[in-house]
Amino acid sequence: GGSSSSTAGFRHAEAAASPDPGLGAADSEGRSLERACLRAERGGPSAWTQLLPRLTANVDQNPCDAQAWAFLARARAATGNDMEALRAAAEATRLNPSVPLGHSLSLLVARSSAESGKWDAAARAAESALASQPGDIQALELLVRAQAVQGLTERAEGTLAIVAQSHGGCRAAALAWRIADDKSREPLERHRWLSRAATLGRGSERPLRELGEVCLVLQRDQEALQWLQKAFSQPGGNSDADVARMLSKLYVRAGRVEDALDIYRSALDAVPENLSLSRSYGQLLLKQGRAMDAIQVMQRTARLSPPTEAAALHITLAELHQGLGQMREAHAAWESAASLDGSNAAAWKGLVTAAAALGETKTQLRALSKLMVLEPGVADWAASYALLKLRVDPGSKEAEVHLERAVALNPSHVGALVGLARFRPNREALDLFERALSASPKSVEALEGAAGIRWARGESKAAATHYKALLDLQPSNNTACYRLAVAALLEQNTTEARSLLSRVTQSSRSTQEALALMGFLDLLLGSADRAREALQLAR
Predict the structure, then answer these.
(1) Which has the least CB within 10 A, 12, 23, 183, 253?
(2) What gap in Å lies between CA 143 and CA 155, rounded to an integer?
(3) Count of other CB atoms within 10 angstroms of residue 533
(4) What proportions of the chain, in percent to the nearest 5, are helix, strand and coil?
């Protein structure tokens, strides 16, 4: 087909020859070359190779002859030198834009122009190819694309109709979809071409799905619903998770929840291992108050899924159980997730929380130990492990090592600083407590620790500062109250001292020490009866 069409092109060139230098020499040598080109067209690449030196010489002698350049371009193309063919063709059309290039060379120019984004040139070359061989599918497709890119939408649709008529609706649909697939197009333009693809290509699910997506962007929910329903009903359409999810959301938006649930069920029958679909289905069931149904869906999917995906599903299951207050079931789900995917930090974190709620210290320690391996740079894991270890083994050297590690990772980690202070002598412990207070001034443990060391060292004023802060946080803290009363007496502030002691002695956890001091203070203040009463209670 390409050979006969190019021959027609050369015959046309021969008939059109004239004295005009832009159309080629009209002398006997020119006519001889034209006949030689016709023979080479019939003879194929080897014939063109033999003719090539003569054509090159002709161009050298007639550099302004458009037809000479056109013949050379054809020879270059026939011998596989597309780059040189395109250069020669460009020179020919520069000298004479209407010079006939023939079908094959016109197609080559059209493709090259399209690839470089020169769509106006691509359209002209495609039209030239069609002039040589009407109905050629490659030329038609290039012309439709060029017209669409240039914004000549009606002309592009007219050319697309020719493609559909001469080469079938499926071929035209594929072309329309290719044009629509350019995401730089405006949504309305994409909608127009996707509509053509959906109409022409019956039984094709992809344009239907993308048309539904574009309708959603355009906020045409009813139309989106229609296209997505068609996409879902295509053979295999229920295995497209994106279609199922979009369609279900549209049903929910329209108040058709049961239809949405039916879509999820149908999709999961087709792709039972799909994690995102299962989650979406479960979440919708949860919103409808059907938590146990949601859990059953997750459990079924987890059994069918690969380990990593099954672990993710067990995490979702654990969260569902926790939301229902089912901590034992949540704990089991976290354990399953961690065992299926040992590198999943989220699973181990969840296990720490669930084990803590159930008072399962050994499980907490195991999970925290794993987290220290998975996230070695996180001070919280080392500190939490150490502080928990100290509960079961107060003198644990292992705990001390992990506390040191936590402080090295995060020098202002309050829990680690306070915990490490237990293993240090008073001077170092005080420094650790006060570093903790710098990071968190309301840390009760740090306040108690720092105040206690200051008090033991006889630094009542400094200790009083910490005890006041502690009393603000814990108004019923009798130790702080009593020691502040003593500090007030040392400052000869008997009013403040008696007020603080009254708080202690009137509480349900009053001490003999506080009652005795109250009695002696009342004696100093000349209240013998009150002093006697307090001292009797202190016995």
Answers:
(1) 183
(2) 10
(3) 15
(4) 80, 0, 20
Q: Name residues of the chain where pLDDT drops below 70.
A: 1-27, 29, 201-205, 531, 534-539
pLDDT at position 328, please? 93
Closest CA to 406 of 391, 392, 423, 393: 423
Q: List pLDDT tens digits, range 407-430.
A: 999 999 999 999 999 999 989 999
How far apart, in whole angstroms, are the C-alpha atoms of residue 181 and residue 386?
A: 58
Helices 205-217 + 169-180 axis angle, to 10: 40
Interatomic CA distance for residues 301 and 490, integer angstroms? 72
Distance CA 173, CA 248 (A): 27
CA atoms within 13 A on the CB side of 291: 11
The SS3 assignment for 63 reads coil
Contact yes or no for 160/196 (Cβ under 8 A): yes
Give the CA count within 13 Å in the CB-facing half-sphere of 203: 3
Neighbours of 314 (CB within 10 A): 27
- Amino acid identity at 384: S
Alpha-carbon distance of 285 to 324, in angstroms, equals 14
So what's the pLDDT on residue 144? 80
| Tokens read off for 81 | 């030198």
> How many beta carbons lie within 10 A of that of residue 499, not counting itself?
14
Query: How far does CA 17 lie from the centroid of its chain?
Result: 64
Nearest to 72 by CA among 44, 33, 129, 42: 33
Mean pLDDT, the chain, rounded, equals 83
Terminal Cα distance for the chain, rounded: 122
CA distance 200 to 196: 6
pLDDT of amino acid 9: 41
Looking at the chain, how many residues does it have? 539
Cα 402 from Cα 79, distance rounded (Å): 76
85 vs 518: CA distance, rounded Å: 112
Q: Is 243 helix (H, G, I), strand (E, B) or coil?
A: helix
Neighbours of 18 (CB within 10 A): 9
Q: How would you class 468 by CB atoms within 10 Å of its CB: exposed for 0-12, middle for 13-18, buried for 19 or more?
A: middle
Which pTM does this prediction carry? 0.54
Burial zone of 255 (CB within 10 Å; 0-12 exposed, 13-18 middle, 19+ buried)? exposed
Orientation angle between helical segments 2-16 and 28-43, nearest 10 degrees: 170
CB 364 within 8 A of CB 353: no
Predicted local confidence at residue 208, as pLDDT:
80
Q: What pLDDT, on the 0 to 100 scale, is given for residue 12?
A: 42
- Enter the DSSP assignment of 181: T
